[in-house]
Amino acid sequence: MATKRVPQNAIAADSTIADVVGELDKPVEYVRRVLEKLERCRRAHGDAQVRLGVRGRSECPNYLIEYVRENAKTHERVTHQDAAYSGSTHRELAPRHIEEARNWSPEEMNITAVSALIGRLRNPNAPSSRFSDED
After folding, report:
1. Distance (Å, rounded) from C-alpha 32 to C-alpha 49?
2. Sign of the CA dihedral 97, 102, 103, 107?
3. Beta-carbon neighbour count of residue 61 at 10 Å?
4. What is d(CA 47, CA 78) in angstroms, rounded to the nearest whole number?
5. According to the model, what pLDDT value does residue 128 have?
6. How many domains does the chain have?
7. Pair 82, 91: CB distance under 8 Å
8. Which of 11, 28, 39, 46 has the smallest CB count inside 10 Å?
9. Per-residue pLDDT reduced to its tens digit, 44-83
């Protein structure tokens, strides 16, 4: 009987990219590629957020891009899935991956938070405020 490969580090069920960034193989490249997908979704739908896949490898977890729209009649905010992507290749996954809710963290990061995260990764010694570049 073949033994199933166990992930090096399990991903907590409610993780965001910010929570696992220290375990990513190539954090700047991974976050940059996620941000590309978020920007494409925002251009298409006016909004974008990302949920982390919590059943894969913490070095390159899959991720789900979503957008939120307000229902014109009920004014409820409704989340729509855009696409799921492989964390290692950043290629789109088959829709069946999206449907399995337990694959995805309930916590999301919006495009602004992911932009801030890549800024911190690229320049870890910078002050935390983005308005402090007047020195």
Report:
1. 14
2. positive
3. 23
4. 12
5. 60
6. 1
7. no
8. 46
9. 999 999 999 999 888 999 999 999 999 889 999 999 999 9
